[in-house]
Every structure is written in structure tokens, then in C-alpha cells.
Amino acid sequence: HDRPYKSFSDVIEGKEGRSRENLLGKRVDYSGRSVIVVGPSLPLHQCGLPREIAIELFQAFVIRGLIRRHFAPNLRAAKSLIRDKEPIVWEVLKGVMQGHPVPLNRAPTLH
């Protein structure tokens, strides 16, 4: 084979190194990133969450709620209700979110 050998330090260092690829760049399930903006109608201790992000984060719980409350007979039907943005989906989502607080993190900005 014509590929040069890589030393251990080559494997773990640099932009394509293992430490950067696996430790710093891992995706995390049930998480999201967005921009925080002013919500004049919200109390100081609350943060609004757009419906589209909320439904993505809580989709598994909403599906379970739709099936348990007999709004959908199965997974496919529940996903169809979500995709079609049926009003019952937002009702179930609201109930789900009451029992699942959303932790927020704002990294300090560097100026």
C-alpha cells in the first residue's frame, strides 16, 4: 500500500484528529441550537421556544401522548398528525412540556 503511516500524535492532533472529532464534535440527541431574542410578553424567568424546535425535541413524547390518548392508532399515524401540524399535536405538546423543563445554556460572549 502507498499510504504513509501515521504516528499516534498525528491520529489525535489537528483538525481531523480523534480527540477533536470524537470529543469536541459529538452530536447530542434531543438538543438544539438557536438564537435568543427578546420576548417582550415573557416574564424575566422564562424563555420562549419556537413550536418547530419544541416538536422536534419532544417528538417521541408527543407520539406516545397521541397514541395513549387515542388520537393516533400507531406510530405512522402519529407522525402524520405531527407532519400535518394538526391542532391536537400542539395540545399534546403543551401537556408534555409541562412535565419536562427545558434547560438553557448561554455561553459567555467574548468582546
UniProtKB/TrEMBL annotation:
Is Disulfide bond tagged as a keyword? no
Keyword list, A-Z: Chloroplast, DNA-directed RNA polymerase, Nucleotidyltransferase, Plastid, Transcription, Transferase
Q: One Pfam family name from the record?
A: RNA_pol_Rpb1_2
Listed under catalytic activity are:
RNA(n) + a ribonucleoside 5'-triphosphate = RNA(n+1) + diphosphate
| Biological process terms in GO annotation | DNA-templated transcription
GO cellular component term, pick one: DNA-directed RNA polymerase complex
Please name the top-level EC class of this enzyme.
transferase
GO terms, molecular function: DNA binding; DNA-directed RNA polymerase activity
Q: What does it do?
A: DNA-dependent RNA polymerase catalyzes the transcription of DNA into RNA using the four ribonucleoside triphosphates as substrates.
Q: What is this protein called?
A: DNA-directed RNA polymerase
UniProt organism field: Encephalartos latifrons
